[in-house]
Amino acid sequence: MYNPTREQARQFFIDAWRKQRERLPLTQLEVIAADLVQHHPEYQAVIEDPDSALDRDWTPEMGQTNPFLHLSLHLAIEEHLSIDQPHGLRAAFEAHFARLGDRHQALHIVLDALAETLWRSQRDGTPLDGPAYVERVRRGKP
């Protein structure tokens, strides 16, 4: 199983975005990562400054979202949707997409549900609850 360090995960997004901007060849995963950065212009300046981005901490007290965490959740969701795991996630997402007409907005519903699911798992010291994740997406609330 691939388990990158915080720095490696950040460097992956930095490199994918740089390669996209320089029109260099990208792997399929890098294409997805660069597309995610493209959809988040509010994070591009951070990603384009690797000297400060690699070591920087984002805390709730700062009032800012960690761009690398946010993008990593998006990347995980793309994988979840591609294999419909947990089962039913794709249908729940597609219902929001059809209702909203905006894929990125629908993805953020899934992202909020995934973040809540991860938080509960860490807080309780339990495995991820796939059915609860899907139900949170269906309801459209974490």
TrEMBL record:
InterPro entries named among the record's database cross-references: DUF1841
A Pfam family reported for this protein in Swiss-Prot or TrEMBL: DUF1841
Domain of life assignment: Bacteria
Record's protein name: DUF1841 family protein
Species: Candidatus Methylophosphatis roskildensis
